[in-house]
Structure formats: C-alpha cells, structure tokens
Amino acid sequence: MAKANPGYPEIAEHFRRQIRDGVLRPGDTVPSYAEVSEQFGVARTTAHRAFRALKMEGLTISKPGVGTVVAPPPSTAISTRVALHAATGSALGSGEQSQILEVGTVGADALVASRLEVEPGTPVHVRRRVVSRDGVPVHLSSSYYPSYVIAVTPELRELTSTGASRELAAERLGSAQDQVLEEVTSRLATPAEKGALGLTAADVVVTQVVRTVVLEDGRIVEVAVKVAEGSTILRWTTLLRPQE
User: Fold this and answer.
1) H/E element holding 206?
2) Contact 12, 54 (CB under 8 A)
3) What is the pLDDT of residue 40?
4) Are 176 and 216 spatial neighbours (Cβ–Cβ below 8 Å)?
5) Which of 9, 162, 163, 222 is deepest in the core (most CB within 10 A)?
6) N-to-C CA span, the chain
7) Beta bridge mates, 19
C-alpha cells in the first residue's frame, strides 16, 4: 500500500518498479495525472514531476492521442555491450537471442567501402544476424570485416554465433577496441529487411545505425550496419552536472 502523501520520487519509483517487473510493458498506457493524483492523494503537479522523472530516464514517452505510454526498450550502446561482454562473456543482454542468417563474401558497396577504407567492390566478409528480445525481432545487423580480421578469426566464416565477434577479432589481432563512430539515419526498409524483422506494411521506415569500430593500433576491426523498425527509439540520458 502506498504511504500517505508520498512525494514525486516515491511515485516515480512505484511506476519504475512496475515497468522493471513487467507489470507495465512497452506500449502500455500509464495512468493519467488525474488517476495518479487520486490514487496517491497528491496534487497533479506532483504526478507531473513523477512522470517527468520517468520520461527523462527514457522509461516513458508521450504518444499523441493516447497519453503517456511505456517506452520500447532502448537500443543498447556499443560501450554497454563491450562492458557487458567483459563482465559476463556475452554481449547479449537479458532476454536477447542472436540468430545468424547468412555468412559469406561480398563486394563492398559504397557505404561499407568508404568506412573500411577500401575500394568499392573489394571482397569483404559479411555476417548477417537478427537479434530478438523475448522472442520478438528488434534489429537486423550486417557486420563487415576486412581480410586481415578473417585471417585470424576463421570462426567468422561459420554459420554459428561466436557471441562476441569483435572481441574475438581484437584479441587475435593483439589490439583492444579503442573507439566507435556511430552514424544514425532513417530510410525505407528493403524487402529482405522487412522479412527478417517481421514487418508487413508496404512502406516501412527503419532506423539505420552504421558503426565503425577502430582498434587502438588504428586498424578497423568491423563496420556494422544495424537496422531497426522506425518506432524503435534511439535514446540515452547524459547528465549535465559534475559528478562527485
């Protein structure tokens, strides 16, 4: 039972816990300010401050004509995945599964060639996979590798998941991952992308993230093109105050 006259932090924590425990799931509508005011016996301004806290944490979003809904899971930053692999040995988060769809050699197109610093048409190795969360496809990723990466990591030629291809390649090459350039754009999905992500509309807007990962010695270890359905929001919160 909620305590009498709670403050906005307690109200925010109540809904934060419901989201975390799955009582409120992505897309679910959260109570209105009026309903929260009545439930907790507080002013609407207090309810507003609680919901603002949840919004700033990326847990909820405003949906025109509906109200406030639970936000879809945020895209996991590459730095988070690197740290996750270092801590657990896997770059996949809780509830995530990765299925390899294709491996092989292709000629680098203009997008990939310029980032791998090779001429267009140069043979490069590609691994395509779909990542699902709780059984629902969330993004399609195509990772491209130069020949020197494949030379030391022949496992990447196999139609099986290594769990952390970049980490394996960096270890074999003897140089740690140093930095990543991430470029985000929107475009229409291709038929193959719609099929992999289970999208059925005629025209589907997707978010494309191109990641170019560089090792400490300056070599490029991977260029990855990640595609997610357009309603998947790329979001993060950056603190603007000095940390103690």
Assistant:
1) strand 205-215
2) yes
3) 94
4) yes
5) 222
6) 35
7) none
Give CA–CA dist 51/61, Å, rounded: 10
**How many Cα atoms sit within 13 Å of 192 on the Cβ side?**
9
Structure tokens at 69: 């809904």
- SS (HEC) of 124-183: EEEEEEEEEECCEEEEEEEEEECHHHHHHCHHHHCCCCCCCHHHHHHHHHCCCEEEEEEE
Question: What is the 8-class DSSP label of residue 24?
Answer: S
3-40 residue pLDDT tens? 567 899 999 999 999 988 889 988 899 999 999 999 99
- Comparing 11-20, 121-130, 231-240, the range with the smallest average pLDDT is 231-240
Confidence of residue 127 (pLDDT cuts 50, 70, 90): very high
Please name the residue that has the structure tokens 């000629």: 107
Using DSSP bridges, classify how beta strands 96-107 and 60-63 pair: parallel, antiparallel or unpaired: unpaired
DSSP string covering 26-53:
TTPBPPPHHHHHHHHT--HHHHHHHHHH
User: Please, which residues have CB within 8 angstroms of residue 44's CB and are 6 or more apart in sequence?
Assistant: 33, 34, 37
Token reading at 182 = 């991430």
**pLDDT tens by residue, 133-173:** 878 888 899 999 999 999 999 999 998 876 688 999 999 99
Sign of CA dihedral 148, 151, 110, 143: negative
Question: What are residue 205's phi and psi, to 5 degrees?
Answer: -85, 130
Q: What is the mean pLDDT of the chain?
A: 87
- CA dist 28 and 19 (Å) reads 10
The neighbour count for residue 206, using CB atoms within 10 Å, is 23
